[in-house]
């Protein structure tokens, strides 16, 4: 069985320590998508992070492998290695150029969403004025599909997500988003969005972040509750896991340059408070998700779908595009 974590965040710094990745591997995770930047990160920072992460992966070939196909992941698991690829949280690092998608794909970016909480020239964010996919956004969806990259709708506004899912010729995912029907937070996704995602053949991956799970000290039972909700609504074939754990490391400052304003990206009007940061499920949560799902009545085969087979299916469909394999 392949355990697939659709999104985590190390420090946005080329010298980030990969110890958390090793912790996930020890907890049974076979593949993880590492975030390499978002809309608030300038291209110079994103490229520096990609270069640093690639160098770390290359320096420990006995532990890590940068992958671009599902077969690569299966082989990595057989070899006892952690399979890794990258994701972008927002379209601003694309510089309004659809051709940038294929370039990032060649560097190891295998999934991307278009707006990080706020509106931009491509799509609307989930914490901004209602805004649909722009004309440029439609070209970007085509570029993502053509490059064989997973089209992600996390952090994106309702109207834009529905537009993206209607426009995409490939399955669409939410790499880290929970059920609004259980926790009415703007970052969570409505039943309409969940069903639309399933309609593309895609997967909604449940995150382990306290605000979106509705628990101050989130654990496997909280994750399982959201998994069960989505499975009941849309079918067990359309739910996965993207823990969204954000690992901080002292002495590494990854603050975006250029007058970064956290209150813009995480507005108080949406319920964010600077004096009350979120908590996350620990990497060890992967050891206990399956037993919690079993308590809720899921079979062994259904649990395997949630833990990785669903995302493997979607990636197999999408990653068969023309993107060159990373070196």
TrEMBL record:
<dbReference type="Pfam" id="PF01244">
    <property type="entry name" value="Peptidase_M19"/>
</dbReference>
<protein>
    <submittedName>
        <fullName>Peptidase M19</fullName>
    </submittedName>
</protein>
<dbReference type="InterPro" id="IPR008257">
    <property type="entry name" value="Pept_M19"/>
</dbReference>
<dbReference type="InterPro" id="IPR032466">
    <property type="entry name" value="Metal_Hydrolase"/>
</dbReference>
<dbReference type="GO" id="GO:0006508">
    <property type="term" value="P:proteolysis"/>
</dbReference>
<dbReference type="GO" id="GO:0070573">
    <property type="term" value="F:metallodipeptidase activity"/>
</dbReference>
